Amino acid sequence: MKGWSGRFLYLDVGRREHKIVSIDHDTLINFIGGRGLAIKLLWDLNPVGVDPFSPDNHLIFAVGPLTAYPLPSSGKMVVASKSPLTYGYGDGNIGTKAAVELRKLGYDAIVIRGRSDRPLVIYVSCEEIQYLDAEDLWGKTSHETEEKLLKLYGKNVGILSIGPAGENLVRFATVVSEFGRSGGRPGMGAVMGSKKIKALVLKGCKDPEPFDRKELMNVGMEAYNAVKNSHGYSFWMRQGTNATIEWSQINSVLPTYNFREGVFDFYAGIDGYMLESMRISQKGCPLCNMPCGHIVRYVTDIAEGRAELDYENIAMLGSNLGIAPLNRVSRLNYLADAYGLDTISLGNVLGFTMEASEKKLIDYKIEWGDYKEAIRLIEDITYRRGIGDLLSHGVRYVSEKIGGEAKDFAMHVKGLEISAYNCHTAEAMALAYGTSPIGAHHKDAFAITIDVREGRLTYQPEKVEKVIWMQNIRGGMFESITTCRFPWVELNIDLNYYPRLLKAATGVDYTWDKIYEIANRIYTLIRSFWIREYIVNGYKWSIEIDMPPARWFKEPMKKGPFAGAKLDVNRFIDMLRYYYKLRGWDENGVPKRETLRRLGLMFVEKDLEKIGVRLS
């Protein structure tokens, strides 16, 4: 088998046992790897309705057939599990040396079940697997943990760790690597913490073998050159994703004051030009020649240090909280990375708390822009002290506990907090959030560009079609092959490089029709996983589950060029139903029987019927 390893490593941390399991060729061809492989393994291995913190919930680290080859931005992996934040499918990707080392170990995935009786570091090399006591690391930040492990094992290893937030089962804790790379925002760090795993240390020994190495090298170099010679390369290297602050301000989609508004009066204090003035270095994933990580040195009245920034964390910890300038945002971001908290969910939780405080719905005082109190609250969330214990569950849970109007300004879909685009006037992006396979997230479809380019609040069926096309490419292909989407998204390199690279790596002729079919298969299996897990836990599945936050429908913006505008709920529901039709799902978003059969998911049909789901 070329391109794939054809096996995964299965670790049972409770029993300190492991085994190597073969993956059949059809599964690899039909799900590719990364996200596709992860959802197939979760469907097969997880007990139906399992609690996310149960030893029987599996934690998966998966790579794809292009990971670790010399081609643009291929140092990526997917971390996936049943989410403790949403209780559905959760995943995230992370750019790290650990992805390269996993490939060099000769596995397509590492799958972990069980729960240790004490904190562990798991060391995996080609020669041995060690379960090492980590009592001395438990309680350390992710940065402190990685420093100690690098001293112990040397620089030629990949490390994945959790901070205190993961240890304390904060439900939006992430897995952290390389002092600021973070992945798995639906609580993958908390799942890792529930298993008492402080860190994974990976050390491979052999490069993966492609089907046609010469062709792979040639096409990979061609794509690298296309990145370097692209029109936007020089400006990308200056600001990266941080240029989006100004773009979002101009287009009135910059999240401000818990998504009340789309413009921020002090945006210039946190924009890409401010970042340029503070930057001391740049950082990319392995095998990347367009680094997105901008390392800044910050100095505030209470601390100084370094932080790795991008658009999402600046917007969510800046304008969404009314906090500027950038040095203050940088400090909040550093703490989130050190503690192992997702910056997007954290920015939502803090913004929700500021608004609930303003409206006197909670017995806690924190004002918009209160940087020092935000720091205290981050620490209380991490260690689950006082109100921080409640907030550690995320905004859906907190709003349900408060009740009343709190649900209207809890900015989430399916329990996962909204990422950094205000959608009062962006119905395609709102649809992308509503139908994202992990809950509200932007990585599957950056549809805000469609709204800005093709008109706001037009509710065109063509927008729905483009959302699905984006999801199939970004979330279906890139999340499964597994490489970064930025060379295409940001610098517009030709998508046709990727079928060529897949053919060179695997020997399989992946036409675009085949790639779209696989993407539809992955999205439909993930949707089925959500339905399975919700139904067996007593929840009714309906179209309401895919609806964006009520704020965007009920409360118009008051500032900027779109003052007075909001989404129309009936026209949005029409878009959502058209989305279901195109996916081959019924009026409630449940995959139809014929769709499951067409995609080769007959096992899903049987499993759903066993738990009483009536298929159209």
Write the layout of secondary structure elements.
Blueprint: E1 7-12, E2 17-22, H1 25-31, H2 34-45, E3 59-62, E4 76-82, E5 89-95, H3 97-104, E6 109-113, E7 120-125, E8 129-133, H4 142-153, E9 158-161, H5 164-167, E10 175-177, E11 181-183, H6 188-194, E12 197-203, H7 213-228, H8 233-239, H9 244-250, H10 272-278, E13 279-283, E14 293-299, E15 304-309, H11 311-317, H12 326-339, H13 343-358, H14 371-383, H15 387-391, H16 395-402, E16 412-413, E17 416-417, H17 427-435, H18 448-454, H19 461-481, H20 486-489, H21 497-506, H22 512-536, H23 551-554, H24 569-583, H25 593-598, H26 602-610
Parallel strand pairs: 1-6, 7-12
Antiparallel strand pairs: 1-2, 3-4, 3-6, 4-5, 7-8, 9-12, 10-11, 13-14, 14-15, 16-17
Helix pairs in contact: 1-2, 2-19, 2-22, 7-21, 11-13, 12-14, 17-18, 17-19, 19-22, 19-24
Structure in words:
With 616 residues, this protein is α+β, with helices and mostly antiparallel strands. It folds into three domains: 7-203, Aldehyde ferredoxin oxidoreductase, N-terminal domain (Aldehyde Ferredoxin Oxidoreductase,  A, domain 1); 237-420, Aldehyde Ferredoxin Oxidoreductase Protein, subunit A, domain 2 (Orthogonal Bundle), CATH 1.10.569.10; 422-492 and 511-616, Aldehyde Ferredoxin Oxidoreductase Protein, subunit A, domain 3. Helix content is 42%, strand content 14%. Strand 7 (120-125) and strand 8 (129-133) form a beta hairpin. The chain is globular, with a radius of gyration of 22 Å.
